[in-house]
């Protein structure tokens, strides 16, 4: 993990086209601004984790449904 110290108004560049700017620091809260192309998806970590979990559940449901269909077809034979 790369750890950088930045002050209000300072920024870092990620790759060639993403800029992360420190907008303010108030107590233990840091407000960040992100300049990135619209094609780059940006999520808060807890939202990203929730999306990943939902995707895993959806895949498991699809696999279970496909397995059930296979079993039903075997029973019909």
From TrEMBL:
<comment type="similarity">
    <text>Belongs to the CsrA/RsmA family.</text>
</comment>
<dbReference type="InterPro" id="IPR003751">
    <property type="entry name" value="CsrA"/>
</dbReference>
<keyword id="KW-0694">RNA-binding</keyword>
<protein>
    <recommendedName>
        <fullName>Translational regulator CsrA</fullName>
    </recommendedName>
</protein>
<comment type="subunit">
    <text>Homodimer; the beta-strands of each monomer intercalate to form a hydrophobic core, while the alpha-helices form wings that extend away from the core.</text>
</comment>
<dbReference type="Pfam" id="PF02599">
    <property type="entry name" value="CsrA"/>
</dbReference>
<dbReference type="InterPro" id="IPR036107">
    <property type="entry name" value="CsrA_sf"/>
</dbReference>
<comment type="function">
    <text>A translational regulator that binds mRNA to regulate translation initiation and/or mRNA stability. Usually binds in the 5'-UTR at or near the Shine-Dalgarno sequence preventing ribosome-binding, thus repressing translation. Its main target seems to be the major flagellin gene, while its function is anatagonized by FliW.</text>
</comment>
<keyword id="KW-0963">Cytoplasm</keyword>
<keyword id="KW-0810">Translation regulation</keyword>
<keyword id="KW-0678">Repressor</keyword>
<keyword id="KW-1005">Bacterial flagellum biogenesis</keyword>
């Amino acid at each position: 993990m790369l750890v950088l110290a930045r002050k209000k108004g300072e920024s870092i560049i990620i790759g060639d086209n993403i800029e992360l700017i420190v907008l303010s620091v108030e107590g233990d809260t840091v407000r960040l601004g992100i300049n990135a192309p619209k094609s780059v998806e940006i999520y808060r970590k807890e939202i990203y984790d929730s999306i990943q979990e939902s995707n895993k559940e959806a895949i498991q449901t699809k696999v279970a449904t496909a397995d059930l269909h296979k079993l039903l077809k075997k029973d019909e034979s």
